[in-house]
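Loading example: each entry is read as two labelled lines plus one structure line.
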Amino acid sequence: MRKNFKLVIRYDGSRYHGWEKKRNLDTIQGKIETVLTRMDGEEVHLIGAGRTDAGVHARAMTANVHLQTFFSTEKIKKYMNTYLPDDIAIVEVKEVSERFHARYHAVGKTYRYTFYDGEDKPVFDRKYVTVTAESPDIDKMREAASLLEGRHDFKSFCGNPKMKKSTVRTVDSIRISRQGDRIHMDFHGDGFLQHMVRILAGTLLEVGVGRRRPEEMPEILAACDRKKAGPTAPPGGLCLMEVEYH
Amino acid sequence: MRKNFKLVIRYDGSRYHGWEKKRNLDTIQGKIETVLTRMDGEEVHLIGAGRTDAGVHARAMTANVHLQTFFSTEKIKKYMNTYLPDDIAIVEVKEVSERFHARYHAVGKTYRYTFYDGEDKPVFDRKYVTVTAESPDIDKMREAASLLEGRHDFKSFCGNPKMKKSTVRTVDSIRISRQGDRIHMDFHGDGFLQHMVRILAGTLLEVGVGRRRPEEMPEILAACDRKKAGPTAPPGGLCLMEVEYH
C-alpha cells in the first residue's frame, strides 16, 4: 500500500537542464527520482507542480510522490537531503491524501524575477540575478505592470509557438520593488505559460529603460503574437517562490 | 612614467586555486594580471595585500599595480570589469603615491568565517558557508575567543610547518554573532599566518560543540604546536572583508 507524500523542494537551477526529467541530462526531477527510487526499492514517479526551465531556481517548488516506504516523513527528508547534491534541498515532507496531485491541485504560484541594477558586478549572487544594462524607471514599469494584471489571453507572452491549449491566465498581481541594488518583480497568478514570467520581465524592463511605453501593453496582449512582446529575460534571475493549494 | 594604482577587488574564490599566480592554474592574481597586461601592453605585476587560499573569498582584497596607461581610473575599472570573469569584480581603482605597497603598508585585516547552523541545506549560498554537524554553544565560543585575543605567538595556529619568520601576531578582536541560521566569526588583526583564521575557526567550533573547553586556549597557544589546535575549517566559509591602511 503506497502512501502519497507532498514535498517542498528548494534548488539552485544553475547546473541543471530544468526540472523535467530528460534522458542523459541532469535535471531536478531526475535527481530526485533517482534518490527516491533507491530509497523505495522500486521505480517512483515524481509529479511536480510545474516545470522550471534550465537555469531557473526555486525556493519552494512542490511535488508529490507515491511511496511504499515505512520511513517517517522526517526520515525520508533526511535520507533525501543526504543523497541529493548540495544544490537541491528537501525543505518539507508531508503525508497527504491519496488523491493529492501537485499539479492539478495547485491554485496559485508566485515567481520572483530579480534584476541587479548596481554599480559593482554582483560577484556572490551572480547566478540569481540579471544585470541591467541601464537603470530602469520603476514607476514606468509599475504603470505597465498594472496594465498586464488580470485575466487575459497571454499568447503574446508564451514561448511555445505550438501551444494548442488555452493561453488565458489570470495574473492577479505584479509587484515591483527596489531593495538596494536589486529590483524585484513578484508575479502572482493561477498559472504561467512557458517562458511567460521571463517574457513579462523582459518586456517590463524595456518599458523601464524607455524602449516601450506602458500604454503599449494592452496592444501587445490584444495582438496574441509573441513577436509583439519583449525579449525573454535570462533564466538565472527567475525563482519559483511558492505554490499554493486550497 | 608609470603610475601606481590601488585596487579593491571582490571575488568568489570557489573555482580558483587561490590568490597567488600559479603556472597553468586559474588564480585571482593570474586572471587580473592577464587583463591588465593586455590593457597596458606590457607585462604588469600585481602586489596583493596578502594571499587567500583556494576556495576562500574576498569582499575587499586590496592590491597595487604600476601601469603606464593613460586611462582614467574610471576607465581602468570599466575595462577590468568587462574583461574579468563574473566571479571577480574591481570595486575601486585609485591613483596612489609611487611608494604605496599593498602588502607592506597594510596595518589591519578583517576576515569573516561563516558557519551555517540551520535545519535546511543552504542551497543558495552553499559555497560561502560551512555547515555545522551539531549546533554550537555561542557563549562557550566567545569565552574561548576572548582568550585568543591579543598579541601571541600563534605558531599552533599556523598551517605552514616550515614557517621560519616570526609567528607572533596581534588579533585584537574576535567577535562571534548569530544571524538567523548563520554564525559569523569576525577576526580583526594586524596580520594572519597561513590557514590561521581557518584553524582558529575550526578550534572555536570544537569548543562550541563541547569537544574542547575554553580554558584550553592558553595551553594551545603556549604549546606552539600545530597538533594541539583544532582542524582547519574548510575554505568556503572564509571571506577577507577589509584591508586597512593608515
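Residues 199 and 232 of chain B are 4 Å apart (CA to CA).
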